[in-house]
Write a structure and sequence with these properties.
CATH superfamily of the largest domain: Histidine kinase-like ATPase, C-terminal domain
Bound molecules: adenosine-5'-diphosphate, magnesium ion
CATH topology of the largest domain: Heat Shock Protein 90
Helix content: 40-55%
Structural class: alpha+beta
Shape: rod-shaped
């Protein structure tokens, strides 16, 4: 009964955690990428600045002091004259493309990912431009670090989600325990109270009926009072029986399954209410396919269709028609109770299956209706792994469709 709620809770929990973890991972990835990129750029800027000091103008000729090795692994330095002609170079990862002064920072993808920084070199004393220096570094290591990070982060997220799912199942189980046990206590209380109420109610009813059997022994004005007592106790008996039934169906997780001939069960019920329908001047019709066999609890299924037929009897007016039809498709048994009665307004359709819910709340005492009928129907249909659907229009009629998978 609480299985669905548990599942929803677990899904919600895992969903929220997945969003948080993913958000966190994306943030970490962005910050890390930014910081690695900055580090690389700063490294190149510093190297370029250092390399500018190795270029000088001597007697009008460019002199490069490249004895000292400045480059690290995966780096290169190239010195150019003012015309962009390569004068000297160091390191393996040289760029084989012409000098471009702007923008100073460039990323290249050919022949492999490389970043370069270009700076003008100025004569130390005069401050005049004498050439350019271009430093570069391969981006392979940066890309490798980022893909390792991606791998680590995504496996972390996957493991995190897996662990949180396991934790979620355990946590929702724990969270649902008190709810389940208080529901169970409530259910037990309803069952016990309805059971205990049966005998005193029976006593009241029997006494009222006995008194009514010999009306000469009571005052004339009291006869109506005894009749009211008898009818009220009748209503209460029905109510307690319905409550007991609901309390029992709430408890049973697996109903008794026996092969039932639904065709004859439905035909029986049509016959049972025929006289009442005729009395009310209804067109009482049935269209039931032969030999509709189904595995289920006969008593409970009888209750389902008698509740639907009683509603059709009650919520119709003289001249209306009520049609019970039952058929089989390749995968389903379909049973429809259709009437041309008062119908239900669209805004009420969602609520009619709730316990004690009635469209017309005021007359429940006189009519003996408690609003439990459809709640019982839905519960029993659910236990038979079936579905119930309703379509209705105010003033036009209603159609209740029960479907069972076969
Ligand atoms: N065939 C129908 N036509 C119109 N209204 C209906 C029909 N069946 C049920 N209803 C509405 O749904 C409400 C709930 O039905 P139900 O659970 O059987 O309770 P009850 O019949 O005891 O009032 C009813 O009070 C009625 O307003
Ligand atoms: Mg009813």
């Amino acid at each position: 009964m609480f299985q669905k709620t548990r599942l929803q809770l677990t899904f919600a929990y895992v969903g929220v955690l997945t969003v948080i973890l993913t958000g966190f991972t994306v943030a970490v990835r962005l910050i890390f990428t930014r910081s690695l990129n900055q580090q690389l750029t700063v490294r190149l800027e510093n190297l370029a600045t250092a390399a500018t000091f190795n270029m000088d103008l001597e007697d009008g000729e460019l002199d490069i002091d490249d004895d000292e090795i400045l480059v690290g692994q995966e780096q290169a330095i190239q010195w150019f004259d003012l015309q962009g002609k390569l004068v000297a170079q160091q390191g393996e990862y040289q760029l084989n493309i012409p000098l471009e002064i702007e923008p100073s920072l460039q990323n290249h993808s050919h022949p492999y990912p490389i970043r370069s920084v270009t700076k003008p070199v100025k004569e130390l004393e005069v401050g005049e431009a004498i050439g350019y220096v271009r430093v570069s570094e391969s981006l392979t290591e940066l890309h490798n670090t980022l893909s390792r990070l991606d791998y680590g982060l995504s496996s972390g997220v996957a493991i995190g989600i897996l662990l949180s799912t396991i934790g979620g199942i355990w946590l929702t189980g724990k969270a649902m325990q008190p709810i389940e046990s208080s529901f169970e206590r409530l259910r037990q209380f309803t069952a016990d109270a309805s059971h205990e109420l049966r005998s005193p109610l029976m006593a009241i009813k029997t006494n009222a009926d006995v008194a009514l059997k010999y009306p000469e022994g009571i005052r004339k004005t009291d006869v109506e009072k005894f009749k009211s007592i008898s009818s009220a106790s009748n209503q209460m008996t029905r109510l307690t029986e319905n409550l007991l039934l609901l309390a029992r169906t709430d408890k049973i997780s697996q109903i008794e399954q026996k092969p039932i001939n639904l065709s004859s069960l439905l035909a029986d019920l049509i016959q049972l209410y025929k006289s009442q329908a005729e009395e009310k001047n209804l067109l009482w019709q049935a269209n039931i396919a032969q030999d509709l066999y189904f595995l289920g609890d006969e008593g409970l299924l009888r209750q389902v269709f008698s509740n639907l037929l009683q509603n059709a009897l009650h919520y119709t007016n003289a001249g209306d028609s009520v049609t019970l039809s039952a058929s089989r498709t390749s995968s389903k048994l379909l049973i429809k109770v259709e009437d041309t009665g008062i119908g239900i307004a669209a805004e009420h359709l969602d609520r009619i299956f709730e316990r004690f819910w009635r469209v017309d709340k005021s007359r429940s005492y006189q009519t003996g209706k408690s609003g439990l009928g459809l709640a019982i129907v839905r519960e029993i249909v659910r236990q038979h792994h079936g579905e119930i659907a309703v379509s209705s229009k105010l003033g036009v009629g209603s159609c209740f469709t029960v479907s069972f998978s076969v």
